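STRUCTURE:
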């Protein structure tokens, strides 16, 4: 359990338009009365400027969905950590399973991305999680520990500045959710691994992600080592996202 309030982060993935974002953010912000948890939305890169301007003055922080492993230069199509910083980005997702799977991101690349974010003063949300085949083979613990170890190794004493998201791949976008007990078991493993690396492991928020929704959020968030959520589909519906932010504020 961390000393922080819960952290709820929306991941819009590759969804949105100028018009849709404006109404989603306005509907979400107007529902924030009584919300005391920390909250952020990770938007597609072209919409950072729009979201930055719409979120300024609100309690909702801005996040990005990826960052380059390189600092600057001849990397066509990439977005650097310093560019994100220009839009007051507070969080950046690194190592989402969709990027590991479709863009070949290795543990080493993910660790470098986390480093770039930290160097720019941005909190990396480091995603780890096993596939269904790995879970069925009893490999869950080995896989998530290997993924987190790479980030711990590359980031040394800064490791207490990261956020971790446990996202079982079989639960992402599938409507299948880890049970609160399954989530807690993995979160406890990750917490112990962080404790072995830093005296400040209690500062690290460990989020659960994978079909979290308005109906299941409260029971997941009730687990001692579930410090918040990383929310895909349900963050695109303002009433659902607001209701989850309220569940995280109790
Ligand atoms: C995610 O994109 O990180 C995620 C957890 O998606 P969903 O909530 O849609 O499963």
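SEQUENCE:
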């Amino acid at each position: 359990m961390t000393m922080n309030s819960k952290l709820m982060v929306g991941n819009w993935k590759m969804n949105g338009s100028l018009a849709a974002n404006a109404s989603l953010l306005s509907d979400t912000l107007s529902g924030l009365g009584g919300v005391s948890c920390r909250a952020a939305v990770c938007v597609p890169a072209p919409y950072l400027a729009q979201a930055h301007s719409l979120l300024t003055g609100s309690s909702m922080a801005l996040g990005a969905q990826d960052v380059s492993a390189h600092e600057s230069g001849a990397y066509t199509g990439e977005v650097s950590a310093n560019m994100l910083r220009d839009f007051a980005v507070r969080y950046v997702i690194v190592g989402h399973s969709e990027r590991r799977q479709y863009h070949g991101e290795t543990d080493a690349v993910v660790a470098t991305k986390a480093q770039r974010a930290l160097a720019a003063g941005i909190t990396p949300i480091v995603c780890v999680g096993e596939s269904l085949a790995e879970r069925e083979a009893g490999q869950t613990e080995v896989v998530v520990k290997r993924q987190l170890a790479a980030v711990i190794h590359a980031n040394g004493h800064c490791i207490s500045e990261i956020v971790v998201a446990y996202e079982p791949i079989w639960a992402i976008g599938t409507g299948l959710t880890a049970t609160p007990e399954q989530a807690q078991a993995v979160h406890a493993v990750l917490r112990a691994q962080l404790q072995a690396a830093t005296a400040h492991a209690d500062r690290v928020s460990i989020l659960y992600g994978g079909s979290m929704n308005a109906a299941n959020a409260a029971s997941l968030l009730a687990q001692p080592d579930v410090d918040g959520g990383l929310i895909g589909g349900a963050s695109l519906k303002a009433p659902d996202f607001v209701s989850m932010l309220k569940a995280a504020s109790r």
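REMARK: The longest strand covers residues 38-43.
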